Amino acid sequence: MKLLVRILLGLVLIFVLVGVGAVLFVDSLAKQAVEQGGGLALGVETRLESASIGFLSGEFTLNGLAVANPPGFAEPDFFALDGTRLDLPIGNLLGDRVTIPALVLEGITLDLERNAQGTNYGVILDNLARFESGQEPGGGGESASASAERGKVFVLQKLVVRDVRATVNLLPQ
Question: Is the pTM of this model over 0.85?
Fold first, then answer.
């Protein structure tokens, strides 16, 4: 009987430690996921200074997001975002209709360029289209089968966009 109690206490302790570890490292895992997922989907380097996930507060923030330009373009970054905040109480995620109280985007910088290779946004959109179709970034590959299942409905109550700058250089070179 004592052995069974010790085993159960050991299992509970392991679950508690895993839960505490997940809470402590969730921000760095989110940062890594944004960087790797963005790079894979867009075909260019994606950098993020920090991410913060507030389980209890329901607030998700990103700071210092930058999407690099494809090789051969003048500016180092195609897109940059100083900060974003998403308010999403955890209880809202349970229903079929998810209400998002607020999304704030601040310090957006966009660089649109054209050169002999084409446009920087064209290269990024081509990479994204290949990613969405299931092809490898280098081309080729089979299309992934898409299911037409009905999912959740998301309702955004408030969108705030501040400090937007765009640079456009589309003259033929």
Answer: no
